[in-house]
Amino acid sequence: MDTFDNLENANQAPADPFALFSNWMAQATASEPNDPNAMALATVDGDGMPSVRMVLLKDYDQRGFVFYTNGESRKGNALTANPVAGFCIHWKSLRRQIRAEGRVERVSDAESDAYFHSRSRESQLAAAASDQSRPLDHYSALETRVKTLEELYDGTADIPRPAHWGGYRIIPTRIEFWQDGPHRMHHRVAYTRDGDDWVRSMLYP
């Protein structure tokens, strides 16, 4: 299941795209030197303007793919206006990439709380202090905010998660796996959701 070598038709690909995703992610985690879970996340704002940035995939299961961010950031505002997104993960050393797209929903408060408090205390403070995507006159202003919160929560076990900060789940309607082939004859297999099932198809490179 770890390769598309000699794949002659779509039915030879695994039936479950999440099983294949997990397999490729495990290989990338073992081989990639830095952030194998980094993905280019694309959103579209209320005016139809696209925007893309790198974020970290923090969880995935049969429900979808989860990342975390400030809901009042540029991406957060775009997702409020247009709750759809796509992403691409590219592993250069493995010569593979995965693309997915679908609608987006907020994860539960319990999930967001659990992840927020799993981060380092310094990262929690930075997230709480940041007005993400908004103008910053001087970097020292951010440092001052962090210091103020550090003093405020000194001796407190858990820093409260800001209500606007949390997780988003991309519920995919399409997932595509790409593996480099000789002479640009790449292998591409797309999974399209059909109710509770996935339909597999091979694509020309």
Write the H/E string, N to C: HEEEEHEEHHHEEE
Report the C-alpha radius of gyration, rounded: 19 Å
Mean pLDDT rating: 94
Q: Could you tell me how far the N terminus lies from the C terminus, measured between alpha carbons in angstroms? A: 20 Å
Give an overview in words.
- By secondary structure, the protein is of the alpha+beta class.
- It contains five helices and nine strands.
- It starts with 16 loop residues before the first helix and ends with a strand.
Give a nutshell description of this structure.
26% of the residues lie in helices and 35% in strands. It has 205 residues and is of the alpha+beta class.
Write the topology of this structure.
Elements: H1 17-31, E1 38-44, E2 50-56, E3 59-61, E4 64-70, H2 74-81, E5 84-91, E6 96-106, H3 109-116, H4 121-129, H5 139-152, E7 165-179, E8 187-194, E9 197-202
Antiparallel strand pairs: 1-2, 1-5, 3-4, 4-7, 5-6, 6-7, 7-8, 8-9
